[in-house]
Amino acid sequence: MNLGRSLTVTRGAGLGAALLAVATLTACTAGGTTSGKSTTPATRDMLTFGVDGTLPNLDPILASNSTVDQAVVPVYDALLDFSPANEIVGRLAEKWTVAPDARSIAFTLRPGVAFHDGTPVTAKDVAYTLERIKKLGVGVAESVAAYDKTEITDDTHFTIRLSTPSSLFLGALSKVYILNSKLVQASAGSDDGQAWLATHTAGSGPYTLASYTPNQQIKYVRNDSYAGADPRIAKTVVYRLLPESATQRDELESGNIDVSDGIDPIDVPAFEKNPRFEAVRLKKPQGLYVFFNTQKGATADKRIREAVRLAYDYQGHAKTILRGFGSVAAGPLPDTMGCRADIPDAKQDLARAKELVAESGQKDLKLTMAYQQIFSEHAEAATALQSALKQIGITLELKPTAYPNYLESLKSVDTTPQLALLWDNPPTPDAGSLLYRTYSSKFLGSSTNYGQYKNAEVDALLDKAVASGDETARCAEYKKVQELIEADAATMNIADHETVIIAPKGVTGIELYPAHVGYVPQAYKVS
Amino acid sequence: MRYLLRRLWLVVLTVWGLATLVFFMIKAIPGDEAQSAAGITATPEQVEVVRERLGLNLPLWGQYLAYLWRLLHGDLGSSIFTFRPVTADLGGALPATIELVAAAVLLNLLVGIPVGMLAAAYERRRPDAAIRLGAIAGGALPLFWLGLILQHLFGARLGLLPISGTQSMGVEVPRVTGLATVDSLLAGDLPAWWDAVQHLVLPAVTLSVPFVAFAVRLVRTSMITALEADHVVMARAKGASPLRVMLQHGLRTCLGPIVTLIGMQTGWMIGAAVLIEGVFGRPGVGAYLTEAVQQKDTFAVLGVVLFTGVTVTLVNLAVDLVQLVSDPRIRAAQFGAAPLGAKA
Fold first, then answer.
1. Which of A36, A247, A404 sits opposite B296 (nearest CB)?
2. What is the DSSP letter of A235?
């Protein structure tokens, strides 16, 4: 879509209903779940999902946390979402118009949509939700920091004004779940409803909350009065917290849970052969990277960065460490994202790597890499890189680091690790959301410019793209940014990840919704 | 009474020391709590708003004093992630942990003491060798691995016991105490009670194994020493039955170290329960603490550590009092030659 001119995107009732239907998932479940008894799912009235994160809070303001997001996505609606095709589609919003200067967005709400208590969803609720986020400043607030105010025209028409031009704001609204302002204000107390919303819901989504036991279980019941309700989705959805992969495997085999995305890759082939299950591979909006300190020390030399990149066995990583559940990275954006530049897959070239080290004049070079030892992929990749670098004459010291400590180290160029191995997830599926925070020098010394990267040309392109309402032009600018970053060897892009969802045979609609890392149960159709 | 007051005063001092130590340890961990609460990409302005709201803009001593003041009023502060009072969060999480630890302690008593006595009774014979071998193996098994093996074998393969959770799907009883076994009894729902007990077996067995193994070895050694004492030889010579010799003359003499050990183990079990709860998907303090540490949620971590510390301290106090009552030698050491309660 071209946002160069004032653009109106209309999603008619058909699309709205279709989206809501897509957003309405199905599930079914094991019929009997008596203790330890191996049962075959007999009905599709209920789907039980194994969850390997935590279930500590239901306040949708914390949806920037993927575990909270998957807990609230069945019960809330946002104005917009990203479709599996990575396009922005309306949920509560029927139409939206982005101003050419990217400083405001005019919205029209779908008529006739109501919260679970029957209260109509109005512009006032949208304004309340955004003002609450602005006031509390936590969770998704970071993604909508450009929000200034909401101007309400009537119940279904309003304009969101931004304090600075931001083309990223529209995509960020996919994580802004609209609250029933009347209900929250009635229950709020002095904390803007934080304590109340931690254990209650005030949404308009395809499911209602039936029960919630923190860090154990959440039960949802289908909202049959939901506009565009899909009768093919399960009547009841349950999330069960099962942190261990082996426990999820055993519970799946025993019929006590129906769906799992936390199965160890080594166990997946057994489920692929099991006639009761379907193993669906989905790309995951996540990549593994090594970020170099581009400002100080040996890694400030581009030749050293390039040599390190050329030393690693990327194919071996995808095949052995990821056991085939991932692919070699091609550029700084995960392969789930749009606007990717045409960058070839990373590959090993030890001869060229040795040449580069020699050209740099560095002898007996020692480097240090921070990594998170608790993650097996990190531990294995760190060891593999250590061995690879030894072949080109570089000694790599591995330094296990806790994530908060790593973030603290980024406050200064002097303390930023020479190399740091970490996963990164884009805040939203918009390419700019990841590129801007990671490679703009505006974020130097913050906890997102991991490499202390500074390139005036990249800065100019990113600033221009973020302030532009022209999507085509933005996309071209993002591609150019990726090429510049790649040419600078700013990061070592190792692998893009896949996830496997094990579900009962016959369940359909299991797709990647790029704004949501976890389950989107209203998409699972069981009949 | 003076002895009791002195011990209670020591409990208060211990808790204060623990609270202080943990508070400053948390503060020493690199990472900005306000940044953690606001999110890694929050703007500096957003971080400052959160800092002020959480009282993190006060100097360190100010934060510490404010924390102690709230503590004195029974307020553990609010979690920066759940936004709820830590006391409320703990109230939700603790019952499952207490239930698990209580079951494991019960197993420890019911298995550790009799099996240790059995080994002592058959000293250097086959049953003793087998028990010692089992105790060594039990003490060496990693809890995490043991839990996974037990749930795979008895849950997934044999289908004898539930694999995880506290109750089966569809089994619901009104929450009164938060202990599934107790609440189902209060509701008069025996099938639900049996279901809850079944869910408790594997995690409790897993948690208790290394502690039982240690208890067995201690009981065995203590009993062997006790059974060699002159008064026991005399009792045997006078025709006392083997069971009477074991229970009255042997076990009673070595109850002191056994009670001490069980008391200490109760505290250790709370720490080990964190791991077991993760494996068995139980909603106790383990999951809460894991999340709190990851989020650098100071007050939540402090709350859990304080709970553990207070529990250990109180259990130790109870152990000391039990020993005081049951062992005249300790009474004599504390109060002089006169027995407890004797008139001067």
1. A404
2. S
